[in-house]
Amino acid sequence: MRRPRPIAPALGQESVWDYPGPPRVEPVAERITIRLGGDLIADTRGAMRVLETSHPPVYYLPIADFVPGALVDAPGGSFCEFKGAARYFDVRGGDTLRRGAAWNYPHPARGYEVLTDRVAVYAAQMDECTVGDEIAVPQPGGFYGGWVTSSVVGPFKGIPGSQGW
């Protein structure tokens, strides 16, 4: 399948088609929050984001910035060709439990060591994820963990027909 036509970014926006492959990790200046079950379960100004061609950013928050008990070890794992072996967490907030809704790389590949003590969550499984003052929208398709905000344009991996990108 050939590469889709990227949307031209407006002033202050980024095109995910300008993101690199392999992915780049960079610090996030904005405050990041996550709510689940009506509770604020994470709040940080110490997030990192992973930028990969065709994907909206994936935000990794310090494990220490989640409230105690919000992250529970879960079975299973996966492997990223760039970052290495991932482990999963169930995420708890209020009376809500979302199974396998977060992951991290406890022993990431070289170049991704900054992710060691950080966790990413699937925005679709949370009540609300914010970047600055904006509520993020989950990356399309349900498989990937990117968060879409008004500062990024696609098209994004995960939409119908994007499997071959």
Care to describe what's here?
With 165 residues, the protein is mainly β. It has strands spanning 14-15, 24-27, 32-36, 39-44, 48-51, 58-62, 71-80, 84-93, 96-104, 118-121, 128-131, 134-135, 137-138, 147-148, 152-153. It has a single domain (14-145), classed as Metal Binding Protein, Guanine Nucleotide Exchange Factor, Chain A (Beta Complex), CATH 2.170.150. It has a seven-stranded antiparallel sheet, with no helix packed on it. The mean pLDDT is 96. The chain starts with 13 loop residues before the first strand and ends in a 12-residue tail after the last strand.
Task: Record the SSE blueprint.
Elements lengths: L13 E2 L8 E4 L4 E5 L2 E6 L3 E4 L6 E5 L8 E10 L3 E10 L2 E9 L13 E4 L6 E4 L2 E2 L1 E2 L8 E2 L3 E2 L12
Parallel strand pairs: 1-15
Antiparallel strand pairs: 2-5, 3-4, 3-11, 5-6, 6-10, 7-8, 8-9, 9-10, 11-12, 13-14
